[in-house]
Specification:
The complex is a heterodimer of chains A (about 300) and B (about 375).
Chain A: H1 5-18, H2 22-50, H3 54-58, H4 71-76, H5 87-134, H6 140-149, H7 155-168, H8 175-200, H9 204-211, H10 216-245, H11 248-253, H12 261-266, H13 276-298
Chain B: E1 5-16, E2 19-30, E3 34-38, H1 45-53, E4 60-65, E5 68-69, E6 80-83, H2 95-104, H3 110-124, H4 139-151, E7 157-161, H5 169-185, E8 190-195, H6 198-204, E9 207-212, E10 215-220, H7 222-227, H8 232-237, E11 244-253, E12 256-260, E13 265-268, H9 273-278, E14 283-288, E15 293-296, E16 307-317, E17 320-327, E18 330-336, E19 347-352, E20 358-361, H10 368-371
Parallel strand pairs in B: 3-8, 3-9, 6-7, 7-8
Antiparallel strand pairs in B: 1-2, 1-4, 4-5, 9-10, 11-12, 11-14, 12-13, 14-20, 15-19, 16-17, 16-19, 17-18
Helix pairs in contact in B: 2-3, 2-4, 3-4
Classes of the chains: A mainly alpha (about 300), B alpha+beta (about 375).
Chain lengths: ~300, ~375
């Protein structure tokens, strides 16, 4: 809307008086900046490390801003390597090839496993959350708590039994084996976050829909789901991040062919060299999909979707 | 079974956890009638509507719709339209979509949907808001959208739960006038209208059903409710200013009956003899509405029939004057036309109009006049 000049001045005065006084505002901003730096510091460190050569990384005192190189990133994607040279060099080249292939492979694996497990967890978890929220049955809260309790268990505790079972049922080293375990990570979170979100939606909305002759299914898809989008989006982001980050299950329960990226990155520390730079570059690249997913899903994290539905 | 009974309640009880929201509800609603359910908050009005709509099942008892047992009919099968007291609009849909939503399920062509939405929006005066979301609307606009969503589908039964409740007086007045139009639009359907505003009830209803604390108190047309209330509760809840109620003792002197207490003395004519004779207690409750009192500002000749008091307040409301009269410890309100001669601290002589006197049992609070068959056409 366009306001007249006088209205603009009045609006400015109101806004100014609603803000903190100047001194306070400055302090708050400084504090926010400090917190921001604290959180972002490791990422920035890795970023800088990925842009330096091995020598520069090892230098003491640390020389941060001198020179940047994209050499590490080139190393990641090296497919054709020079052949020949001494045995040591040849071994090094073979290992590099293996590492490069491993990196791309790992990226692909993590993508497949994370996306599939979060997808399945969403398809199963959102209706489950709806059921837990809206229907009555004996022992419902106990069931819900059991779902949540899957997250309480430390992964190391169940790892050995899981390893033995997986060997026996031939799930070891298969995609579905890893996806199944990753669902263990994502499903409880999706159910609980979505459930509490649906709990907040007024039940009267579904009663109104029933009066409009919506079937329960249609009411679920047309009324509940659109309004629960923020909750579901938040749950998906969190689940995706947790599954993407998971190290231990991929480390123990998968073979070389199926390693997720978290495990593949460790391979950059091996006999030939401790290539921190390339490892840092690999880490930076592996973060990118998570950033993309968060950005896309955060568009749905809007508050107040159900404002105006009922009289407050 | 009579053919003109649209809805029949039989022994309905409804319990929420430990509380009975409805007790012993037995009445019927006629075809094509405009029934107003009236009562204070928490009386069970919304619960009644929900049971008719099928959103709640009675704990005990049966409901019949169109003479069919309807307990097992789902909401889907019952052809009812309902508005909610707190609107319940779909917050993520525009006004157009909110109005169109019941039609979309029926697979009507988009042209037809558009036509009907625009038609109902015109009737309710919301044509300019079709693109807005519910959170961008004022209370009155939301109320109208909610009403439109209910009215857009033709149905046998309309359930309106306090449709004018949360609006300010000016809009309520305007909508109430529009409601008379809507009423003719609805004249081929049964409408059940819930309100706690007695003026709406008296203005719109064919019959009024008064409930309190889950129980049916009285059901009848507005004239009956107003002039022949079953008990003090009904007499007090309808009418403003409230009916004047006093506890008096019966005293017989020769052939006359007087109702007396330390401040008042009211003469009852022989008409009331049968009632007093069959009433065996000493105390009786007397009631007379403020508009049924005669008053004089100068001492009248037959002053012994009048009660003398002092004007302690004079207020003008709705173009009528309300005189508050104090007689020692009793306070009586009298309604009158606006007059400049009425001043506070003046003396005033008041007398109740004999034909409008109501008498109630001192213990049960029931109306003795209507319960007594010998008294005229009670």
């Amino acid at each position: 809307m366009r306001y007249t000049k006088e209205e603009n001045n009045i609006i400015k005065k109101i806004k100014r008086s609603a803000n903190l006084s100047r001194g306070m505002g400055f302090t708050v901003n400084i504090l926010l900046f400090v917190v921001f730096i604290l959180f972002l510091f490791p990422v920035i460190w890795i970023l800088i490390m990925s842009l330096k050569t091995q020598n520069q990384i090892a230098m003491m005192p640390p020389d941060i801003f001198s020179s940047f190189t994209l050499e590490n990133y080139k190393n990641l994607f090296q497919i054709g390597v020079e052949q020949g040279g001494t045995i040591t060099e040849q071994t090094a080249q073979t290992l590099t090839q293996i590492k490069t292939a491993g990196f791309l492979n790992g990226l692909m694996n993590t993508l497949i496993i994370s996306v599939t497990s979060v997808l399945i967890a969403t398809l199963v978890g959102v209706p489950a959350a709806y059921g837990l929220s809206r229907y009555r049955s004996p022992g419902k809260e106990s069931t819900a708590f059991i779902f949540l309790s899957f997250r309480f268990v430390p992964e190391l505790v169940i790892l050995i039994p899981l390893y033995i079972i997986y060997q026996k049922v031939n799930l070891y080293g298969t995609y579905w084996g890893l996806i199944w375990v990753y669902i263990l990570i994502s499903l409880p979170m999706i159910i609980w976050i979505t459930r509490s979100y649906i709990d907040d939606l007024p039940f009267d909305l579904e009663q109104a829909a029933m009066l409009d002759h919506y079937s329960k299914l249609r009411a679920f898809f047309k009324i509940i789901l659109p309004l629960a989008k923020p909750g579901i989006a938040a749950a998906i982001i969190l689940s995706f991040i947790f599954t993407w980050n998971n190290f231990i299950f991929g480390f123990i329960l998968s073979t070389n062919r199926l390693q997720p990226i978290t495990v593949a990155i460790i391979r950059y520390l091996d006999i030939t060299d401790l290539n921190y730079g390339t490892m840092a570059a690999a880490i930076m690249i592996s973060i990118i999909p998570m950033i993309i997913v968060s950005q896309i899903a955060s568009r749905y994290l809007v508050s107040g979707l159900s404002l105006g539905a009922i009289k407050q | 079974m009579e053919n003109n009974k649209k809805i029949i309640f039989k022994n309905i009880y409804k319990k929420y956890k430990d509380i009975f929201a409805l007790k012993n509800i037995n009445y019927s609603i006629n075809n094509n009638e405009f029934l107003v359910i009236f009562g204070p908050s928490g009386a069970g009005k919304t619960t009644t509507l929900k049971i008719i709509a099928g959103l709640e099942l009675p704990t005990v008892g049966e409901i019949f719709i169109n003479n069919q047992p309807a307990n097992s009919m789902s909401t889907f099968e019952r052809n009812v339209r309902m508005t909610f007291e707190n609107y319940i609009l779909y917050p993520h849909l525009t006004v157009f979509e909110n109005l169109a939503s019941p039609l979309r399920v029926k697979k009507i062509s988009f042209e037809e949907i558009k036509r009907r939405v625009i038609e109902i929006a015109d009737v309710l005066g919301i044509s300019n808001y079709l693109d807005r979301l519910p959170r961008e609307l004022s209370g009155g606009q939301k109320q109208r959208v909610s009403l439109g969503r209910a009215l857009i589908v033709e149905s046998d039964i309309y359930l309106l739960d306090e449709p004018l409740a949360h609006l300010d007086a000016k809009i309520r007045h305007k909508l109430r006038a529009e409601f008379q139009n809507i009423k003719s639009f609805l004249s081929n359907s049964t409408v059940i209208y819930v309100t706690h505003d007695y003026q709406e009830a008296l203005a719109l209803a064919d019959r009024i059903c008064i409930i309190d604390k889950g129980e049916l108190i009285q059901i009848g047309n507005p004239e009956e409710i107003y002039n022949k209330p079953t008990n003090i509760f009904v007499a007090e809840i309808i009418g403003q200013p409230q009916i004047n109620i006093s506890k008096l003792n019966i005293s017989r002197e020769k052939d006359n009956i007087y109702l007396v207490n330390k401040d008042l003395r009211i003469n009852l004519t022989k008409k009331f003899m049968p009632i007093i004779n069959s009433y065996n207690k000493n105390e009786i409750i007397f009631g007379c509405r403020p508009q049924f009192w005669d008053f004089k500002l100068i001492e009248p000749e037959l002053s012994k029939d009048f009660l003398k008091g002092k004007i302690i307040a004079y207020e003008i409301r709705n173009y009528r004057g309300i005189i508050t009269v104090q007689i020692n410890d009793e306070v009586i309100n009298v309604l009158c036309d606006i007059s400049r001669e009425i001043n506070e601290k003046d003396n005033i002589w008041i007398q109740p109009k004999e034909e409008e006197i109501l008498l109630f049992d001192a213990d049960t609070n029931n109306n003795l006049v209507t319960k007594n068959k010998e008294f005229g056409d009670a």
